[in-house]
Design a protein that fits this description.
The protein has 2 domains: 126 residues, Alpha-Beta Complex (Aldehyde Oxidoreductase, domain 3); 104 residues, TIM Barrel (Alpha-Beta Barrel), CATH 3.20.20.70. Helix 8 links the parallel strand 8 and strand 9. Helix 1 crosses helix 4. It has 11 helices and 12 strands. The protein has a 6-stranded parallel β-sheet. The protein has a 4-stranded antiparallel β-sheet with strand order 3-5-1-12, covered by helices on one side. The protein is α/β, with parallel strands linked by helices. The chain is elongated. It starts with a helix and ends in a 5-residue tail after the last strand. Helices cover 44% and strands 19% of the residues.
Length: 288
């Protein structure tokens, strides 16, 4: 799971957004001594992700709130499954409900979509599904955690974690060959060099420059097959082949069968629909 200091910082900022001027409705309508229990319930099938974040949101409001996870991270559950339970002052549960659900729904939605992409890989193929850096600003850590919970993988975490020479780098450096040459001269020996190419001609240049990874950007299937053939025929060197751009669930199988090593999709994070999770409140008498 993610480090607690990181979670607390994210949760506190989100709570501050909602409670900057207090919770007028709960304070006006609910007695301060009223106790309640709340349950998070899946309204549709989903992959569970973010239980710790959901529960921690209530603990940040009131450490005396009792929390319980009832479904394991990464578990595929049916509609109606009870995922978490919290118990404490009703005002606290009402004030934390939206923030807790926003995290829970977002993370479970990403994990659910990632699981669908992974399950679309045909048996016997070796391709892996990865995300991209197209994440919600400030939420990358939890969104990429959700991708992993769904069974997929993460691409580079930030600009300092790997070299990825994209189209604008190629323009600024004066070409693929020059960009790879400069990268190899300056990069740490532990860092691979990846080059994004937009055509088979650019692929040939990247191969000649001995790029460690070549990303085929928005390639049609026929060109993907030709790229795989050229890479396999290249003498004495075999870079990893990644495909990105326009990746849909329907394309996963054909790309994996073509022999692609990595299928990266920004949709895993930027287009995942929020999971349908409800929070049901009931009055309760808390025992000491």
């Amino acid at each position: 799971m993610l480090p607690l200091p990181l979670l607390d910082a994210l949760i506190d900022r989100a709570l501050d957004e909602d409670l900057a001027a207090s919770d007028l409705t709960s304070e006006a309508c609910v007695d301060a001594t009223t106790d309640a229990t709340g349950t998070a319930v899946a309204r549709k099938p989903l992959v569970v992700c973010g239980t710790a974040v959901f529960l921690r949101a209530f603990e940040r409001l009131d450490p005396s709130v009792r929390v319980e996870a009832l479904a394991a991270e990464g578990m595929a559950v049916a509609a109606g499954a009870v995922l978490c339970r919290v118990a404490g002052r009703a005002r606290v549960l009402l004030s934390g409900e939206r923030t807790a659900l926003n995290f829970f729904q977002r993370m479970s939605g990403i994990a659910t979509l990632a699981r669908r992409y992974v399950e679309a890989l045909p048996p016997g193929t070796s391709a892996r599904i990865t995300d991209t850096r197209k994440t919600t600003p400030g939420l990358r850590a939890i969104e990429r955690y959700a991708v992993r919970v769904g069974g997929a993988h993460n691409h580079r975490d930030n600009l300092g974690s790997a070299i990825l020479i994209k189209d604008n780098h190629i323009v600024a450096a004066g070409g693929i060959a020059r960009a790879v040459e400069r990268a190899r001269a300056r990069a740490p020996h532990t860092s691979r060099i990846e080059v994004e190419v937009a055509s088979l001609a650019e692929l040939d240049v990247a191969l000649a420059a001995h790029a460690d990874i070549v990303m085929l950007d928005n390639f049609e299937l026929a060109d993907v097959h030709e790229a795989v053939r050229r890479v396999r025929a290249f003498q004495g060197f075999r870079p990893l082949l990644e495909v990105s751009g326009g990746i849909t669930l329907e394309r996963i199988a054909e790309l994996a069968h073509a022999g692609i090593d990595v299928i990266s999709s920004g949709a895993l994070t930027h287009s995942a629909p929020a999971a349908d999770i409800a929070f049901d409140l009931a009055l309760a008498v808390l025992t000491p």
